[in-house]
Amino acid sequence: MAGVVKSAGTGSELVLLDVFGSPFAQRVRVALAEKGLAYERAEQDLAAKSDLLRRSNPVHGKVPVLLHAGRPVCESLAILQYLDEAFPGTPPLLPPASDAYARARARFWAEYADSVHLCGKRLWLKAARDDGEEVVEPEARAEMVAVLRVLEAELGEKEFFGGEAFGYVDVAAAPFAAWFLTYERHGGLSVAEECPGLAAWAARCARRESVAANVYPPEVVYELVQEYRQWVLARK
After folding, report:
1. CATH class for the domain made up of 5-86
2. Are 83 and 32 spatial neighbours (Cβ–Cβ below 8 Å)?
3. Which CATH number is 100-234's, of 1.20.1050.10, 1.20.1250.20, 1.40.20.10, 3.40.50.720?
4. Exposed/middle/buried for 215, CB within 10 Å: 0-12, 13-18, 19+?
């Protein structure tokens, strides 16, 4: 099932403020696709933030922000939970409300998935050198492998973190899987060798329509990261 993205200015009940390449915005797009919800996508320029973005997220001024009938919901995981509650007739992401423990675990592991992105950023930023030489930072590499192994242990033998069903934790973590190639090239590691179960999960996610349509391919992510690294080095 895929969500329908309307053209800007069509007066959609749901409007997503996001920016290209953001894995956190991609989370929301994957969720909307899984639920089959139509929405309008409003691309933002974070270098020159619009009045709409500043009004919608006055605390952080970040994307994603979901506007539902004009009312803003901020932060990607909060948006995912909101979609479950606001649209109960759509396929759920979280476990059933009757299973409070399973829901609490899902929320915990979705938040833990953010560690992949945070560790990964340290990995490819620390590998950046003014002279262009690529040097792996051992501590950042070790930290990344440790985080991936913790996630793999939680996945276990299941198809998805939600079991047989693609659910809340999978939606939260799937956009980060597209960054594995970048982590490998800057960290001197192989996800398939270090965490074969997690690599297989990533491949299953990539074949899912909602993910394939809304998450950038690994090579595209890698090129975007190279552009950002060059910008960081130019500012030193």
Report:
1. alpha beta
2. yes
3. 1.20.1050.10
4. buried
Cα 68 vs. chain centroid, distance in angstroms?
21
Residue span(s) of the chain under CATH 3.40.30.10 come to 5-86
> Which tokens hold the place of 151?
């996630």
Extract the tokens encoding 37. Answer: 């919800």
**Burial class of residue 9, CB neighbours in 10 A (0-12, 13-18, 19+):** exposed
- The pair of three-digit structure tokens given for residue 19, joined into one six-digit string: 């920016």
Which amino acid, one-letter code, is at 234?
A: A
**Numbered ranges of CATH 1.20.1050.10 in the chain:** 100-234
108-111 contacts, C-beta under 8 A, 24 or more apart = 109/151, 109/154, 109/161, 109/169, 109/172, 110/77, 110/80, 110/168, 110/169, 110/171, 110/172, 110/173, 111/77
Tens-level pLDDT at each residue, the chain (236 residues): 445 555 444 457 999 999 988 999 999 999 999 999 999 999 998 778 899 999 998 898 899 999 999 999 999 999 999 999 999 999 999 999 999 999 999 999 999 999 999 999 888 887 655 555 667 788 989 999 999 999 999 999 999 998 999 999 999 999 999 999 999 998 989 999 999 999 999 999 999 999 999 999 999 999 999 888 877 767 66
In three-state secondary structure terms, 13 is: coil
How big is the CA angle at 38 (ends 37 and 41), to the nearest 5 degrees?
A: 120
